[in-house]
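Summary of Year 1 activities. Much of the first year was spent building the evaluation harness for sequence design. The harness presents a backbone, in tokenized form, and records the residue chosen at every position. We chose the following record to illustrate the format because it has been used consistently in internal testing since the harness was completed.
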């Protein structure tokens, strides 16, 4: 494997047969760029191809954040005013294509892309004290679209999914557990032991059966994914990136103020 700059990749970490992929950008709350996602994809693909690895754990460095989504400065450059809508990247670093079970170890904030990275994992285990979950697209002028938005309806139901995506509220670990967004919420000092327990249980199961089950569950979002090439930004708001609306959200975030979208037509 290459020398990674944005992640730490460890095989047989804590439990033999478990591979850990850690987003290692704590200075920006483990927010990702395209390079981060590409490195994560390489690590996940490697773990999927390794017959000695049976489960993959995705997490973030430090105790503050799992992943704060896309790095706003990267998104700002990527979605610069006047530019065409950006080319899509794999927002889930290959965990959908891997037929081995993936656990999201949510040790802090799971925001934006970090939230849907967590809910696309097969299992999500969160720190009771520190974990928080939210979408932020309408707050920062970043129009998420496609199957990874729609798939949340399969996780928490349509009404709750629309609330999460459109209102951008934050939910603590217990609230996330109550709505079915996560599988378990445990105290910080028990988080790694709980992850080890889930890894051990999975590694005791038939690997072929697990692959078949994951492939079967994947049929839920496969039709949604196949429809993803449709460019909803171009169809609904072809001038969005040139209007200033996208920049207002990101500038407000960087300036630590509330965005003012009042000048844009409703």
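For this record, the design step produced the sequence shown next.
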């Amino acid at each position: 494997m290459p020398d990674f700059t944005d992640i730490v990749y460890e095989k047989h970490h804590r439990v033999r047969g478990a591979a850990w992929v850690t987003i290692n950008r704590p200075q920006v709350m483990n927010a990702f760029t395209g390079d981060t996602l590409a490195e994560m994809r390489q690590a996940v693909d490697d773990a999927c191809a390794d017959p000695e690895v049976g489960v993959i754990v995705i997490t973030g460095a430090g105790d503050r954040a799992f992943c704060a989504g896309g790095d706003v400065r990267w998104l700002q450059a990527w979605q610069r005013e006047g530019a065409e809508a950006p080319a899509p990247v794999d927002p889930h670093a290959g965990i959908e294509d891997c037929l081995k079970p993936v656990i999201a170890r949510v040790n802090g904030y799971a925001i934006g892309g970090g939230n849907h990275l967590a809910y696309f994992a097969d299992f999500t285990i969160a720190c009771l004290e520190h974990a928080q979950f939210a979408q932020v697209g309408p707050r920062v002028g970043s129009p998420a679209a496609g199957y990874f938005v729609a798939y949340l309806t399969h996780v928490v139901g349509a009404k709750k999914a629309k609330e999460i995506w459109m209102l951008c509220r934050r939910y603590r670990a217990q609230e996330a557990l109550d709505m079915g967004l996560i599988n378990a919420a445990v105290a910080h000092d028990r988080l790694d032991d709980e992850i080890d327990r889930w890894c051990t249980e999975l590694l005791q199961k038939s690997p072929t059966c697990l692959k078949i089950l994951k492939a079967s569950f994947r049929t839920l979002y496969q039709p949604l994914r196949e429809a993803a090439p449709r460019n909803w930004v171009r169809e609904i708001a072809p001038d969005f990136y040139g209007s200033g609306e996208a920049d207002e959200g990101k500038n407000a975030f960087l300036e630590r103020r509330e965005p003012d979208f009042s000048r844009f037509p409703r």
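The longest helix spans residues 34-49. Quantitative recovery figures across the full test set are reported in Table 2.
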